[in-house]
Specification:
Keywords: Signal. This protein has 145 residues and is of the alpha+beta class. The chain contains 2 helices and 12 strands.
Length: 145
């Protein structure tokens, strides 16, 4: 009986530890750096929040403004088993990087809405360029540094 109680307590502690480790990461001082894991990332100076989660093998992301309005929401199915990353640059462009489906950039249009475009159609920041595999780097043009 004593062994069963000890085992049960150990098992409960193990499960609690696993569940605690599955908690979502929260970063309140994000400044656009490359994101490669699920979590909530707050860019205080820009007044935006990036939320990233993995669901059914897909990376889902969304960016909301201070009022909670969606300004960007994932449309493409980025697989979470492949290499992926999300990046906000100094020109207020948002980059969704994927070794699976290719990389995309969200750019604000004249109506202040963000539109998604293939990254290879634009000059890319160093972070985006370095992310690309060597076999396709020649498709990307590095912006002036």
């Amino acid at each position: 009986m004593k062994k069963n109680i000890s085992f049960t307590v150990s098992f409960i502690l193990l499960i609690a530890g696993i569940l605690n480790g599955c908690g979502i990461q929260q970063v309140d001082d994000w400044h656009g750096e490359l994101v490669k894991s699920p979590g909530i990332y707050r860019y205080q100076e820009k007044g935006i929040t990036l939320k990233v989660d993995l669901q059914d093998g897909i990376v889902n992301y969304e960016i909301t403004n201070k009022q909670g309005k969606h300004i960007i929401k994932s449309k493409k199915s980025i697989g979470d088993v492949m290499r992926w990353g999300l990046y906000w640059d100094k020109q207020d462009r948002f980059w969704a990087l994927s070794s699976d489906i290719g990389s995309y950039v969200w750019i604000q249009d004249s109506l202040a809405s963000y539109q998604e475009h293939p990254a290879k159609d634009y000059r890319v920041p160093r972070v985006v360029y370095d992310f690309q595999s060597s076999s396709i780097k020649d498709l990307y043009r590095l912006e002036d540094e």
